[in-house]
Amino acid sequence: MSLTTIIKDTPIWVWILFAFLIRLGISALYDREMRIDRLFLLPIVFLVWGIYNVIYEATFSELALIAMIAGLLVGIVMGWGLWSSQPRLREKAGSDLIIRPGISLTLTLIVITFIVKFIITAMLSIHLALLHSLHFNLFFCFSNGVLDGIFWGGTLNLFIPWYRNRTKSVYK
Pfam families, from UniProt (predicted)? Predict the structure, then answer.
């Protein structure tokens, strides 16, 4: 199967998701004001995509879910480390908004995550026997979990210190 065929046969929702993710990644290059709940948008999108993959792409559902959860935990640790040297969230004075500093890490990880998930899913459609391979299913779901977890770890690394500082200032 050629690369052209793979790209042509990819569902339109995947390309719409890719465009949406790239847009998010580009906006992440610049400081931006947002409500705190928007901080969780990207991790939730990747988590939903990962759960979709476990439900619809994996054969060994129970083991696949365990592999995804294990990967999620590994990814959270990795994401926490990656974001530990990044600029912190700031309060926007006189509002309930935060200022999230612009960084290139988010766009880089979005592109890497999309490519890895795309390649693994394409491998499943090209080599149907992989669908019934326990090892491939575990790899597929573990890697999905790691990639999702990286975004959760980064988000939590930003959110938890912000929340603690906010709570301290409320009780002063």
Answer: DUF6622
